[in-house]
Write a structure and sequence with these properties.
The complex is a heterodimer of chains A (403) and B (280).
Chain A lengths: L6 H6 L12 E12 L2 E13 L4 E5 L6 H9 L6 E6 L2 E2 L10 E4 L11 H11 L4 H14 L15 H13 L5 E5 L7 H18 L2 E6 L2 H7 L2 E6 L2 E6 L1 H6 L4 H6 L5 E10 L2 E7 L2 E5 L12 E5 L6 E3 L8 E12 L3 E8 L4 E7 L13 E6 L5 E3 L7 H10 L2
Parallel strand pairs in A: 3-8, 3-9, 6-7, 7-8
Antiparallel strand pairs in A: 1-2, 1-4, 4-5, 9-10, 11-12, 11-14, 12-13, 14-20, 15-19, 16-17, 16-19, 17-18
Chain B lengths: L6 H8 L2 H10 L2 H23 L18 H4 L5 H34 L5 H13 L2 H15 L5 H25 L3 H9 L4 H30 L2 H6 L6 H8 L6 H28 L1
Helix pairs in contact in B: 3-13, 5-8, 5-10, 5-12, 6-8, 8-10, 9-10, 10-13
The chains are: A alpha+beta (403), B mainly alpha (280).
């Protein structure tokens, strides 16, 4: 299995030895192409993915990256052009959605407008000819779980967006699926409600213990809710890992830019010491970049490096050696409430963002136009893979080496 | 013009301050215009209803001669007219059922899927609706003559189903186009097979369109004259009988039957409105 592995993941699900429980969902070299008038469009490009039982797993990426197509293939609404989809070890390619033991929460909720809340939630159980008494009990329990008890006679249109969302969730969960697929279910809600529903979804997932596969383009949502996530771009997986791994150690330029505010510094590698590179960011300024070899760094070649804005310290005086340091001039100061964002133009011509927490003694570190030093710990310099997804071995090396 | 301006521009025009200033002058204009149109539309119907109560003695029912309920009592005293009405009503029921089923299936297909030939079918339906009835009627007659089908009750049914399907399909297609495709996917996802999905989710969702198409078909069938007259053979329907009688004088029973058919239509329309209000 050519998936990205980290020690933690291996402990959870990846490649279980014989005798261990099989993973909930396994995608094997799955690909989907659509033929359009302009030719063949590749929506999903040979993805391998293993999702463990009981995981809250997110597919994160910009629109058109293939995340929804991937989800719809798991649900059975699209058939893959190539590859296998294993649900608890059984290949379900070609099995229609009504015979797949997964349920989906749709972006538009897709509640049946001509049915009451109760009838909506009971729909799946009635199809399976579950007895009347059991249906009533299970629907009741589920409406309790999503805190909609007492609303069972309402029509969907009489409910608020958040309540409709809960009905959609209850309607899917009441069938006790082996996995729940969620296609941007919170996208239509306003910010406050969305944040509340994020926590609510986490709570429900913990209570029912069902595997959740969650599609979103909202990085905060994915970071907040997921046990693990993949970042997708152009039909491929850019990176797989826990939210912390993906945020703290973005592997590619794309991931660094898509998740959080990225600061990209490009420079020429002057020297290599083991796997650590010495990067020339500007005249007489060198940055120490650990773990650069696995990103393809070599002496005399260009290397992209990113630093998270909250890792950078602004100071007037040159910081001590042992820190990566770079000179710049403050171009903009934006007050953000809990923090202040500084945009600093460096001597090398790039602009870096710096977040400074607004602690009581943090007033006016620097004003616009001030010349400052930016510094950070060398291990916060992250070398990025610039090329398109590298072979699997180097991916494993990188994520493994970052532990 | 309104299609060219952006939504924001549209919103701006409605909230333009001078609109409020013009409002008082317009307050009576719109109701007046509406009532004028309604009067125009309703006057022939009112005349028809009123003259069904006319105590006429001559052949022609055009001069008011006093009130009577006699024509309601003697409604079925003209055997040919009774037979014609019976033909019209039974044909209407058969045509409505057939055309609604076929038109609904066609509308669902056209509204949901793009398939080889769907463009041509759309064009054909439009042509069917737009073509002059006299052309359709004459063409169908020549077809029946060529093939050697004896004209009569069932050729009327075939002819009317033919021109009704397009109306049902168009209304259902519009309804289908506005239907969220994920509704059907959700039904499949929850374990419903294709048939259960259609009957429990798709059909209830497009029911208003289906009913509208059925009502339209029923109305078109009962009052169709042109196409029916070409293909009726010796069978006489209500409109054909009335047309024939108009040369010698239309008996008041025709007004009474017209009134009853109109009432039935109004009733069906009201049922449709109530159904739509309650269901969706």
């Amino acid at each position: 299995m050519d998936v990205v592995k980290t020690p933690q993941q291996a402990a959870v699900t990846v490649e279980p030895p014989p005798g261990e429980p099989v993973p909930a969902i396994e995608l094997v070299k799955i690909a989907k192409t659509f033929s359009s008038r302009r030719g063949i469009v590749t929506a999903v490009d040979a993805i391998d993915l293993v999702i463990g039982e009981g995981e809250f797993f997110s597919l994160l990426g910009p629109s058109g990256c293939g995340k929804t197509t991937t989800l719809r293939m798991i649900g059975g609404f699209e058939e893959p052009t190539e590859g296998q989809i294993l649900l608890y070890g059984d290949d379900v390619v070609g099995v229609p959605p009504n015979h797949r033991d997964v349920n989906m929460v749709f972006q538009s909720y897709a509640l049946f407008p001509h049915m009451s809340v109760f009838e909506n939630v009971a729909f799946g159980l009635r199809r399976k000819a579950v007895s009347k008494a059991e249906t009533k009990a299970r629907v009741g329990d589920m409406l309790d779980l999503v805190q909609l008890d007492g609303k069972s006679d309402r029509r969907p249109r009489e409910l608020s967006g958040g309540q409709q969302q809960r009905v959609a969730l209850a309607r899917a969960l009441v069938n006790r699926p082996r996995a729940l697929l969620l296609d941007e279910p919170l996208a239509a809600l306003d910010l406050k409600l969305r944040q509340a529903m994020q926590l609510e979804l986490k709570r429900i997932q913990r209570e029912v213990g069902i595997t959740f596969v969650f599609v979103t383009h909202d990085q905060n949502e994915a970071l907040t809710m997921s046990d693990r996530l993949v970042v997708m771009n152009a039909g491929r997986i850019e990176q797989l890992g826990s939210p912390r791994e993906v945020y703290e150690h973005p592997r590619t330029r794309f991931v660094a830019g898509f998740i959080g505010t990225s600061n990209l510094i490009t420079g020429r590698v002057r020297a290599m010491d083991g796997s650590t590179a010495l990067l020339e960011a500007a005249a007489d300024e060198c940055l120490v970049v650990p773990e650069a070899a696995s990103a393809g760094a070599g002496v005399g070649r260009d290397l992209d490096v990113t630093v998270r804005p909250e890792k950078i310290v602004i100071s007037e005086d040159r910081p001590g050696s042992g820190r990566c340091a770079i000179r710049g001039r403050v171009a903009e100061v934006v007050y953000l409430g809990t923090s202040t964002q500084y945009a600093v133009a460096t001597a090398g011509g790039t602009e870096l963002s710096v977040f400074v927490q607004n602690a009581s003694d943090a007033d006016d570190i620097a004003g616009r136009g001030a010349d400052v030093w930016l510094s950070w710990r060398p291990d916060h310099s992250l070398a990025l893979v610039t090329t398109q997804p590298a072979p699997a071995e180097s991916r494993s090396d990188l994520s493994g080496g970052n532990q | 013009m309104s299609t060219l301006i952006s939504p924001q521009a549209g919103r701006q025009t409605t909230s333009r301050p001078d609109r409020a200033g013009r409002r008082p002058r317009r307050r009576w204009l719109l109701p007046l215009w509406s009532w004028l149109v309604i009067a125009w539309l309703a006057s022939p119907i009112i005349v028809m209803i009123v003259f069904g109560f006319n105590d006429t003695t001559g052949k022609f029912n055009i001069r008011w001669q006093g009130f009577t309920l006699r024509w309601y009592r003697d409604l079925f005293t003209i055997p040919d007219l009774t037979q014609a009405l019976e033909n019209s009503l039974t044909i209407a029921v058969i045509v409505t059922v057939l055309a609604t089923i076929m038109g609904t299936l066609l509308g669902v297909a056209l509204g949901r899927y793009r398939f080889r030939g769907s463009g041509s079918i759309n064009l054909l339906m439009f042509a069917n609706i737009a073509a002059p009835e006299v052309v359709l009627g004459a063409a169908l007659l020549s077809l029946f003559l060529t093939v050697g089908v004896p004209r009569g009750y069932w050729t009327i049914v075939i002819a009317q189903v033919m021109f009704s399907i397009a109306y049902v399909a168009v209304t259902v297609r519009a309804r289908m186009a506005g239907l969220d495709p994920s509704l059907e996917e959700a039904a499949r996802d929850l374990g419903a097979g294709p048939y259960a999905t259609f009957f429990r989710v798709t059909l209830p969702s497009i029911m208003p369109g289906v009913l509208a198409g059925a009502l339209l078909t029923c109305a078109l069938s009962i009052d169709d004259f042109i196409i029916t007259s070409f293909n009726a053979g010796n069978t006489v329907t209500f409109p054909l009988w009335v047309y024939g009688a108009s040369r010698t004088g239309v008996p008041p029973q025709v007004n009474v039957m017209g009134t009853l058919i109109f009432m039935l239509g109004v009733l069906l329309a009201l049922v449709g409105v109530v159904y739509n209000r309650r269901k969706v």
